[in-house]
Amino acid sequence: MSVQPPLERILVRGGTVLTMDPSIGDLVDADVLVEDGRIVAVAPDLQVTDARVVEAAGKVVLPGFVDTHRHTWQSVIRNIGSDWTLGQYFTGIHFGLSRYYRPQDTYIGNLLGVVEALDSGITTLLDWSHNLETPDHSDAAVQGLLDSGARCVFAHGGGASMWAVPSSLPHTRDVLRLKEQYFGSDDQLVTMAFAARGPQFAPGETTLADWALARELGTRITVHVGDGEWGRTGPVRWMHEHGLTGPEVTYVHCNTIADDEMQIIADTGGSASVSADIETQMGHGWPATGRLLDAGVRPSLSIDVCTSNGGNMFNAMKTTISTQRALDNAAVTAADEQVGVRLTCRDVLEFATIEGARATGLDAVTGSLTPGKKADLVVVDTTDLATTPLNNPHGALVYSAHPGLVQTVMVDGRIVKDRGRLVDVDVDRIRRLATETRDHLFEQAARSESIPDARADGTWMPSAASAG
Ligand SMILES: [Zn+2]
């Protein structure tokens, strides 16, 4: 997609428009006008005659979803760990299959993962890329993002040897080369961030050196904290004591960090990424949504690893709201109080859109249908049997919708999914390359000493790395 077609003037006409912009609100039977890649007007009955029309009657129009943390390279080994714990994931993937990735495997993992995301209405994806053993792997990862047509943040997280916990290997300075080669401007579709191991996954001195490199790079920083037993060691407190907290940092998971650490995140202007599907599946602890809200942090949402869970935001939203409501209901039931609702469907839609934009530093660009922002939007069919009649658009999106209802997806003012079909995407090629890569990885694993029992049929159960 290096040669882009010219931008069109586009009118998205007659939809229920959820702008996620509090000054505009939700509009029924309204239009969205797009020019030169940007939203220029959101209002009922815009008088425009010379634009390409996307009919949105009977549909909901909303900003494209933002996934703030996905290890996209793993798309080709999706669901391999759907019955695994976090400890088994480390053994099977990080200390196992990851080492057999060639650059072309990283490329197709990224392309498959981002195109899958686009198809389901995710227009911005932070690729938390932590299997970049060589510069060639990094180049391939970036190329996969560039070829996808999505708005992406390439968050460089180093390679498997850096993730041999605990490793004192420094984060590669190749990040500086990558920034210069690919990310010269902030005003481009794919930008860069630094994905740091942080105090849970690297010795203190190594973490300090990693942060110094991140600050030399001059990008935002994303770090895992509070996932499982590993997270009870006070990682955020340690970061704060060493001057590593700040508004440029996104804290991924946060399940098991202490209340004072939640408060540090809030007080220093940090953002959070909740991956409710994976956290409830693998044993990270309860999703931290409510505790973050109590501390004053409105979280973003993320998919994390498709090795276990699905890659779309509808699932993530539903698990986020279901788990938090269960926790809230359990607390008031235990206290013999009246059950009420404090987390709404609209809140969760904000987490999936504008809060994601904030957590990736892109809230001036995307995350709401605000005139002046880039045109990243989604049209969801609500005439389907699952969603008709439309009585509550927020509830329909969070509890009833699914990727199959995503009719139109626009990124940067270009339609990448039109009437339910991806535009200019060779799905057969992606499927073929992804399958070849999957076969390569398992052939290599079968010859290895560490994971000779690896199989892609759902029966492989690695031993579990212990929390330490
Ligand atoms: Zn992660």
In short:
With 468 residues, this protein is an alpha/beta fold. The chain has helices spanning 86-94, 103-119, 135-148, 174-182, 204-217, 235-241, 259-267, 276-282, 289-295, 313-334, 345-352, 354-359, 393-400, 427-446; strands at residues 10-18, 26-35, 38-43, 52-55, 59-63, 65-70, 122-129, 151-156, 190-196, 221-225, 249-253, 271-274, 300-301, 377-381, 406-411, 414-418, 421-422.
Tell the overall outline. globular
Quaternary class: single chain
Query: Which homologous superfamily in CATH is the superfamily of the largest domain?
Result: Metal-dependent hydrolases
Percentage of β-strand residues: 15-25%
Provide the list of bound ligands, each named once.
zinc ion
CATH architecture of the largest domain: Alpha-Beta Barrel
Q: Stretches where pLDDT falls below 50 for ≥5 residues?
A: none
CATH class of the largest domain: Alpha Beta
Largest β sheet strand count, sense and barrel closure: 9 strands, mixed
Gyration radius, to the nearest Å?
A: 21 Å
Number of helices: 14
* Termini separation: 45 Å
Helix- and strand-based class? alpha/beta
* Strand count: 17
Q: Give the count of structural domains.
A: 2
